[in-house]
Amino acid sequence: MGTFVLGVLSSILATALTVAGGWVVSPWARQLPVVLLSRLTGLGVRRVYARQKLANLDLPAELARARWVKVLAGRGNEMTRDGFAAVWENIGKRLRSVEILLPDPDLGPASWLTAREAELLRIDPGFAVGLLGEQIRLNAAYITAATSDREDVHLRFYDLPNLHRVIVTDRVAYLTVYGPAEHGRNSPCLEARRPGLVYEYALLLFATAWAHSRPASAPPVEH
What we know:
By secondary structure, this protein is α+β, with helices and mostly antiparallel strands. It is about 45% helix and about 20% strand.
């Protein structure tokens, strides 16, 4: 009898250790508490990425399914890379509209972009004054050239605190919260499904910035 009980206890312990090991190893298992809490509270968060660059690995598949896309970026580097190829290829097909917001690079020292650049200068020795604005201009030029024959792509510049990257489709939102001591690619990112509070918040952030933006082809507004 004692041997039998010992055997059962050993089996239970082995099973517990296996489950615990799977919990540590499996990314899905680590995300399970987040998903459950999100469903209970209505937040709609499906996954939390420790870094935005990890979220970018899953982004192309979501963009390929999208019917519309809204992007608010800190500089827009991702839009010139392979991850956004599905966007440029599907415009006018499955994809009905694309709206893009980049920080206004032409407002000078009083702009929020300058404040963000000052943060990056403190953490990145390879950064130089004016580099962030130049990168934005190059990315804007790429987007304009890639979509020159499309009327359903709209590019605008905003001048608001550079605190988030927002990518929203009709299905999902990716919300990155920039830290003052981190590049956007190293900042945490939430993936939220529709419907949900975080999805709606991401959409509100985009709409607010859109309402305070100018067409990329228009001259900058004098302060």
